[in-house]
Amino acid sequence: MKTMETAKNFIYRNARPLDFARWQYHFENGSREAVLKALAAYQNEDGGFGHGLEADCFNPNSSPIQTWTAIEILREVRMTDRRNPMIQNILRYLESGADFDSSRNQWLNTVPSNNEYPCAVWWKYDDKGETKMDYNPTAYLAGFAIKYAEADSKLYKLACEIAKEAAEWFCAKAPFQEMHVTSCFIRLYGYCAEAGVQLFDMGLLLRKLKEQVNCNITKDTEKWKANYCAFPSNFIVSKNSPFYVDNMEWVNAEVKHIKENQLPDGSFVVPWNWCNDYKEYEIAVNWWKSDIIIKKMLYLKAIEGM
After folding, report:
1. Cα gap 69→9, rounded to integer Å
2. Category of 97 on φ-ψ map: left (φ > 0), alpha (ψ -120 to 50) or beta
3. Containing H/E element for 100?
4. Which of 68-82, 117-131, 142-156 is predicted with the least confidence, judged by mean pLDDT?
């Protein structure tokens, strides 16, 4: 398949070791261990992640967002063993209280040390701006802790408290336009379901998530070509998704879009820039291309079964 072959060529020519290992894991019978080994290079002694793992921020220090990125990769490669040292160290970071705003009962979306390193404008720290980032990535991290932390731990109890508050907030407010927050609540729901806990009305949250997903998907497919907007794949990763049936039209439209809009070098448009003068953006955008390729090829594989 030409789409896959040209994508592979870009990965082999440009990808970071981590993304190269991810590609091989998903499409060439590569090992999970190779992905974990590459991912470990981004984990700090405090258990959190940094070093530009989320490629729009070159801060080497740990942050909740960079740690969220690492957890997404662990989930992607189906690492679910809570005894895994990487998972245990993430739990240690979350339980430490670092980068946690106790006044809002949320982990920070941005951290002060971001301002000392090249990054996109949206990762610049501004304490006033934090209040605009409701539950991103807090809802996600709380769900992760509910699934993996020990039930008698301080972190687990905190995560349960946050999850209840977050679910109440979301159900009262949805639907609204914010794809990143939506993704975090999808993960919160998923982690709670996997853990078998009933901390809130799961049926209500799922109904609200279905409304939210449909509301957030950008229906003007012309905008998919170059705009930063919400694709079905931001929320739906397989036909088993509870959001698939209600959005099948858009899911199939994205399959068609991927095939028709791959660039000659095998990559896809990165529809954002840092909105500043940092030259490191050129490095970051090349890293993002590999990540985007992997996610789009996984989407085709899941929806078309290729």
Report:
1. 25
2. left
3. strand 100-101
4. 117-131
Residue identified by tokens 């809009």 is 261
CA-to-CA dists, residue 277 to 200, 213, 265, angstroms:
45, 34, 26
In whole angstroms, what is the distance from residue 248 CA to residue 236 CA? 10
In this prediction, residue 35 carries a pLDDT of 98
DSSP label of 43: B
User: Average model confidence (pLDDT) for the chain?
Assistant: 96
Q: How far apart are CA 175 and CA 291, in angstroms?
A: 29
Residue 119 phi, psi dihedral angles, 5° rounding: -165, 165
Q: How many Å apart are CA 95 and CA 109, to the nearest integer?
A: 16
Task: For the chain, state the CA radius of gyration.
Answer: 19
Residue 114 makes CB contacts below 8 A (sequence gap 6+) with 57, 59, 63, 123, 124, 125
Degrees (nearest 5) of the Cα angle 7, 10, 15? 115
Q: In the 3-class helix/strand/coil scheme, how is 239-260 assigned residue by residue?
A: CCCCCCHHHHHHHHHHHHHHHH
* Local structure of residue 240 (DSSP, 8 states): T
Per-residue confidence (pLDDT) for residue 127, from 0 to 100: 77
Beta carbons of 30 and 47 less than 8 angstroms apart: no
Tell me what the mean pLDDT of segment 283-305 comes to: 96
Structure tokens at 189: 């729901």
Of the candidates 53, 119, 133, the one whose C-alpha atom is nearest the C-alpha of residue 86 is 53
What is d(CA 251, CA 300) in angstroms, rounded to the nearest whole number? 10
- Helix axes 17-27 and 2-14, enclosed angle (nearest 10): 150
- Cis-peptide into 137, omega within 30 deg: yes
Lowest mean pLDDT segment, chosen from 18-27, 44-53, 120-129, 174-183:
120-129
Exposed, middle or buried: residue 124 (CB in 10 Å: 0-12, 13-18, 19+)? middle
